[in-house]
Design a protein that fits this description.
Length: 202
């Protein structure tokens, strides 16, 4: 019996580091999920103070438009321009991000993950678009706290609602141009016929 207890005790001692590692892994995964949620909330609410606290300094980001930034002031200017520019001005933008799975953590310091986004864009002119995207992110543990180090986002540029809207606009512009051309031809023809009739009467 004593030999059995000794064997069990030795097994528990050998397994203790594994339990500790699993606990640390779970803590990191929970912190990374929290970071993802807070990043999306800060971006959606345009809370740049909160956003800056979640970004490592320095950081790298490439957005869906493929504009890239390493400075918070320029990143803020980009977002604010979406709501103030003359063309394609936004009213609201909301992004929900989901990971494909757990982050891959390397040496307890770096974490890599990828996933999808569901993005809703409401424009100032009343139009709205829903778009699916993809992202890849790298996070770093800085003084015991996980922060976003780099992120790259993108969408299918061959099949998305914004492209479809542009194509519809091009079609309508073409139709309007053709109708205008026909009308102009009709008016010009009427004037030519009237002029010839006047000359014949003279």
């Amino acid at each position: 019996m004593s030999r059995l207890f000794a064997t069990l005790a030795l097994s528990l001692l050998l397994a203790a580091p594994v339990f500790a590692d699993n606990s640390g892994e779970q803590t990191d995964q929970a912190a990374l999920r929290k970071l993802k949620v807070e990043l999306a909330a800060a971006a959606n609410s345009r809370d740049y103070v909160a956003l800056q606290k979640l970004l490592h300094q320095p950081f790298m980001t490439t957005l869906v438009t493929q504009d890239n930034f390493t400075e918070m002031d320029k990143l803020k200017a980009y977002f604010e321009n979406l709501y103030t520019r003359d063309t394609l001005r936004m009213k609201t933008v909301s992004i929900a991000a989901e990971p494909d799975g757990l982050s891959q953590i390397y040496q307890g310091t770096f974490a890599v993950n990828k996933g999808s986004t569901k993005e809703h864009y409401e424009m100032a002119d009343g139009r709205s678009f829903d778009m699916n995207g993809r992202w890849t992110a790298v996070s770093i543990k800085d003084n015991g706290e996980w922060k976003l180090l780099a992120i790259h986002t993108g969408t299918n540029f061959l099949d998305n609602p914004v492209l479809s809207a542009i194509e519809k606009s091009v079609v309508w512009v073409g139709v309007a141009g053709a109708a205008g051309g026909l009308m102009l031809g009709f008016v010009a023809g009427w004037f030519v016929r009237k002029s010839r009739a006047g000359k014949s009467a003279a």
